[in-house]
């Protein structure tokens, strides 16, 4: 066990050599992170920089591979969320952990109910909940059904829930991603009140102007390592961007190829969330045959919703879509696929494949009409096998047989099967949502080569990614999205990583 360092009451938390490794990747590497007491400690970095991993380690949602966590100058053994809470550390995740059919008070004390002789004391919970809400100047009746509140109000209930556990360090992960401007102002008042009450806040956000407004100090992670830290008063937005992006980014080899005529035209595509905020906010663009367009954006930017709207998976989406000069009005997914649009979804396990099926069955699932005898309905297996083997060869899928279970494949080869399934529908436009997520470096290279080959064959590829390097590596153009809007459209010859990062932050997004 390490000896305590020189006492420094300025820091409520210190990590020493904290690391977290998963098979094939180091999410966090030897991080010495300091959390200053009574301050808003901003934590920032690109997607995949290690922010969420670090916070999960502090909050007990994950355990470190190596390293130490010190709280109030004592070595802390944090093995789960409960033990973290005992040390005074609580977290509010971006996806709220609440129950819509329970009351506000019931949500605040869920898992920590106030009981007497095994019976929940509802009146006491309502009273204590009101005390907590009053402390935060939140005018909500604790008996209100949570599902009847706006998202912003639910976020405040989550804060009250954390305070009910007597936490002294509150981690807030992208707390304003789904809030209106007015709700953000209310949240900032709450955060300032928490500071006055002695609560330390760790604040994760991609909104740069927001960070400058609420933060006291800042820490920047890049590729799992701590690369910069300073007081907010000493830095500016360009400093943040340079620290996040770095100055020596390498790009993958990119082969130029011929681009054809316009194949997809989108005008005023819009999709509202249930809270009235636009997930896709009147987006217009066009893509040519053989062109690869990378869509870069941060979590909640609207990339997935945009691709799903193009496929017809969002029936409430509005706007005009033309494919190869013909207007597409039918909203159904089968009709969109028939017209020539295919999607490789973000979650291949849940949306891209059926785990109980073979490679062959998965690969031909979206194109069964091609392999079915007319008027009989029976599948022509020889034709199926021939098509599947052709895809296996083209995409270099490593499999003993197309009849093998899809679960026998590595993550990268599973992804290739999902891509192959889309290709068998013979698309004019292939939509790909985070196609390299969760696969190793070698498999990523294979996906990049596949995208290049598809584009060379004349297919238009629209590729959504949260990795800036990828967005620039494989594309002819990069679209940037923020808060549902298309905030930048950049040709390859004019790629500028700092401008892309700036455009991806809602408060600073400029086309």
UniProtKB/TrEMBL annotation:
Species, as recorded: Caballeronia glebae
Domain ABC transporter: 13-248, 264-508
Protein name: ABC transporter
Topology in the lipid bilayer: Peripheral membrane protein
Compartment(s): Cell membrane
SMART domains from the UniProt entry: AAA
Pfam families: ABC_tran
Repeat among keywords: yes
Keyword entries, A-Z: ATP-binding, Cell inner membrane, Cell membrane, Membrane, Nucleotide-binding, Repeat, Sugar transport, Translocase, Transport
MF (Gene Ontology): ATP binding; ATP hydrolysis activity
Principal location: membrane
GO cellular component, one term: plasma membrane
UniProt superkingdom: Bacteria
